[in-house]
Design goal:
Blueprint (H helix, E strand, L loop, with lengths): L8 E5 L4 E6 L10 E8 L2 E6 L8 E2 L2 H12 L20
Antiparallel strand pairs: 1-2, 2-3, 3-4, 4-5
Length: 93
């Protein structure tokens, strides 16, 4: 046992060319358990999102889809606002 927590999202193969992404926080009979369906497409994969994640619908690989979900849902990705200096408008000559 490594001591690492169970991953929040996992990519599970359904067939040789189809996968689902599951959210491990929910039971298998909970509709929130399935996050997305991923299908082989010409030159990559296409995603049907079953949760509102505002992510792309095409990726190169199914693993990239899983990484995008993990990054989108990672609470540590939030950053402090970027300070934009305020300056008075330039005077016309």
């Amino acid at each position: 046992m490594s001591g690492d927590p169970e991953p929040g999202y996992v990519l599970r193969p359904i067939t040789a060319s189809d996968w689902v992404i599951n959210d491990q926080r929910y039971d298998a009979d909970d509709p929130r358990h399935v996050v997305a369906c991923v299908y082989d497409a010409d030159g990559g994969v296409e995603v049907v999102w079953l949760r509102d994640l505002q992510l792309e619908t095409r990726y190169q690989t199914a693993s990239e889809v899983l990484a995008a979900v993990a990054q989108a849902k990672d609470p540590s990705r939030a950053t402090r606002p970027i300070v934009i200096p305020s300056r008075p408008p330039l005077l016309a000559n």
